[in-house]
């Protein structure tokens, strides 16, 4: 299916039928702006409108989908209609999904910008200068950098979000430390904990996306790997602030991780046997 050819055919046949965009839109129950977008190749008619639109333009559904008029046998034409309709439905679905993701990204960005403005205005109104507002603003920027790629690009966005996490977490911790004014404490703990967490996240990503293992097996192993991660973080805290290496809560967490890993792996094994 060629979107540009369809756009040109709609434009040509509409003019041939002596219909304005507004008149065609009225007959279809859509806006003239929608028709304008169809004729510019910016969007496609909804699949439910194809039959009516074809009749109004004096073409077959197959010709509309292919963007050109062509004489064909009824059997071949029927096969082509089915194939073209499936391709069209898939394309429209993907485009709608992409438009929804973009709208969601714009909404999130707008909310973050609004939140930033509210924080700055309130801070300046209360204190007469910019003080505490740097806390939420820096945090919102950090979260935005991590969330937006996953929203816009889906699976590829997860990879980009992981890169953003690896690149921006330590600078974010540094900024936070400068705002709070606690010399070196956040960075002393944050850098090694962040590195250990990055390593864990990349391993989990590799297990779920890059290996040929089942998701059940990958997820169960990811949970088990949470144990050495937790132990490593506890070791860092022991060296920096004297926290115990293992306490009763750690033992409980380890037990739950093993339990959930066993349940997930067993569920995958049962499903595979069935």
Notes on the structure:
The radius of gyration is 28 Å and the shape is flat. The protein is built from 10 helices and no strands. The model has no long low-confidence stretch (mean pLDDT 83). It has helices at residues 3-16, 21-28, 32-39, 50-57, 61-66, 74-127, 134-180, 185-210, 215-241, 248-273. The protein is 82% helix and 0% strand. Helix 2 (21-28) packs across helix 3, helix 6 (74-127) crosses helix 7 and helix 9 packs antiparallel against helix 10 (248-273). It has a domain at 3-71: 434 Repressor (Amino-terminal Domain), CATH 1.10.260.40. With 274 residues, the chain is mainly alpha-helical.
Features:
mainly alpha, 434 Repressor (Amino-terminal Domain), single chain, 274 residues, 10 helices
Estimated radius of gyration: 28 Å
Name of the CATH superfamily of the domain at 3-71 = lambda repressor-like DNA-binding domains
Provide the residue-averaged pLDDT. Answer: 83
Strand percentage: under 5%
CATH C-level of the domain at 3-71: Mainly Alpha
Oligomer: single chain
Count every beta strand, where a strand is a DSSP E run of 2 or more residues: 0
Order of helices and strands: HHHHHHHHHH
Brief characterization of the structure:
The protein is mostly helical and 274 residues long. The protein contains ten helices and no strands.
């Amino acid at each position: 299916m060629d979107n540009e050819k369809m756009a040109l055919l709609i434009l040509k046949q509409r003019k041939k039928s002596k219909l304005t965009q507004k008149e065609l839109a009225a007959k279809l129950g859509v806006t003239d702006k929608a028709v304008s977008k169809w004729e510019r190749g910016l969007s496609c008619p909804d699949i439910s409108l194809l039959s009516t639109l074809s009749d109004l333009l004096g073409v077959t559904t197959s010709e509309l989908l292919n963007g050109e008029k062509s004489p064909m046998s009824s059997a071949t034409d029927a096969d082509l209609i089915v194939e073209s309709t499936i391709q069209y439905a898939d394309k429209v679905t993907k485009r709608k999904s992409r438009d929804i993701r973009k709208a969601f990204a714009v909404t999130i960005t707008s909310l973050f910008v609004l939140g930033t403005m509210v924080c700055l205005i309130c801070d300046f109104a209360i204190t007469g200068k910019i003080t505490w507002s740097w806390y939420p603003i820096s945090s919102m920027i950090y979260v935005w950098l991590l969330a937006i790629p996953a929203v816009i690009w889906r699976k590829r966005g997860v990879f980009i979000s992981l890169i953003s996490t690896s690149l921006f977490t330590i600078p974010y911790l540094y900024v936070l430390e400068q705002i709070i004014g606690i010399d070196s404490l956040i960075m002393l703990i944050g850098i090694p904990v962040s590195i250990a967490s990055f390593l864990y996240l990349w391993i989990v990503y590799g297990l779920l996306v890059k290996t040929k293992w089942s998701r059940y097996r990958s997820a169960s192993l990811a949970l088990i790997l949470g144990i050495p991660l937790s132990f490593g973080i506890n070791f860092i805290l022991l060296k920096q602030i004297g926290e115990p290496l293992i306490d009763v809560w750690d033992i409980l967490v380890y037990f739950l991780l093993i339990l959930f890993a066993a349940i997930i792996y067993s569920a995958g094994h049962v499903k595979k046997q069935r």
